[in-house]
Amino acid sequence: MAGALRPPGSYPRVPVRILASLTLLAVCLAGAGRLVHATEGVYEGNHVHVDGNVDAAWRKVAGDLGDELFGKLAEDLGARPPASELPLRLTLYPTRVTFERAVLPLTLREKDASLHQILGGWTRRHPPTSHVWLQADAFDTRRLILHELVHQFYARCREPSRRGQGAFWYREGLAEYYGWHRRTAAGLAYGAFDALARGARLEALKLRIAKKDWSAFAVGTRARGGDYTDATALFGALRGTAHAVLRERLARYEREVLRRGGGAATFGRLFRDLRPALEAAVKSYWAAVEPRWITHGVGWDEDAGVLHARGTGIAVLRPARVPAPWSQVRMDVSVPKGSKASVGFVLHTPGIPHADRAFLVERGRLTVARFGNLQQAAREGAAVGALAPNVVASVSLPSQATYRLRLSRLGGAFVLAVDTAAGERRVVLPAPKGAPPRRAAPDILSLVARGGPARCQGLVFDAPPAAPSK
Description:
Elements: E1 37-39, E2 42-44, E3 48-52, H1 56-77, E4 88-93, H2 96-109, E5 121-125, E6 128-133, H3 138-157, H4 168-179, E7 181-184, E8 187-190, H5 201-209, H6 216-220, H7 228-240, H8 244-260, H9 264-271, H10 275-287, E9 293-296, E10 298-301, E11 306-309, E12 314-319, E13 328-334, E14 342-348, E15 356-362, E16 365-371, H11 374-379, E17 391-396, E18 402-410, E19 413-420, E20 423-429, E21 444-450, E22 455-462
Parallel strand pairs: 3-4, 4-6
Antiparallel strand pairs: 1-2, 2-3, 5-6, 7-8, 9-12, 10-11, 11-22, 12-21, 13-18, 13-22, 14-15, 14-21, 15-16, 16-17, 18-19, 19-20
Helix pairs in contact: 1-3, 3-4, 4-7, 5-7, 7-10, 8-9
């Protein structure tokens, strides 16, 4: 019941049984148990069985995600499926077409009319099984896998007659919370909602809850129709709030609904006396969530430091916060042989018109261009050739698979060096006219990709050398 990203403002408020969910589920610590093993087309984890006509590496990734998720859900919910309901079962599909061919008959059998709204995944109720097709970038695929496995874990914890029941805000909010994740050295971090900036969803959520007629209590009691934005706003805040009493009431709600069913009436009974605190906690929680990156038409796996360009427009990835001060940024870029894609850096000087500077590398060439407002152009879906009239420098490069880029700041000027098999190529851009020699607000650094598949990875900011001590 999950789907990939929808465009901003396209979250229809429709009945629960015809909604397809938008996210994946996040991961945690791997559980102990029997040894995992893989056979042709199948991966058996400790708690998850994965099959499907996809690369074996993806089956293993999905199995490992499911095993980590299983342990975390069992800990957070205080429940786990009985042995007779294990393992969790997941099927992966290489394309949407193969996914729809397999899933459509199942949705008809279960009288589920939601396939036309399913963008990335679906979980069957009887028997619980999850289905996901591989997305254009790895983050979205992991998100969908986790989202669907949350639905299945929860369904297998309940009696078969109750598996399709429950409040929409809780079912989908739970899946959204564990789906938005970040990989860390200690394992998966859940509820990484700053990633909601993908597809402008975080902005849409903040606009929604800022409306005078929006009420968290109304969402919980189903006094108003809800959608994925409402579900994420309410569950995310309740799970993440520092308000101890609200967190304790959520835990009580979860225990009661899991064991006895119910939903709206249970929420009203548990939260009615805390309504002012609930409304305030939701607004304060989301006010503190700020995106690290804002994406426009590009896949970004922040954890792996990998950018995936797709489509034919300019795609800008803008960090909301660049470490300051910085003296150099390093990154490796790769463009497939025969591809016309380009990838690189963009610098935007706030307050200085027509000052965006793009350093773009394609296979065999480095191009430097100026653009009036590349961020706006990306949002509006600028054409592939939009940069061509603004090219200010072009340097040939040896044709090779990967280039190392080093962008350095020298006062108000910037230098881009490209390490190649034939040595270093360098381009210098002076400071834009009108820019003060030392800016209080630093330039915004973006990553940009256009024109097809390409990738960058290993993004590193270097701080300037420390001043010598006196």
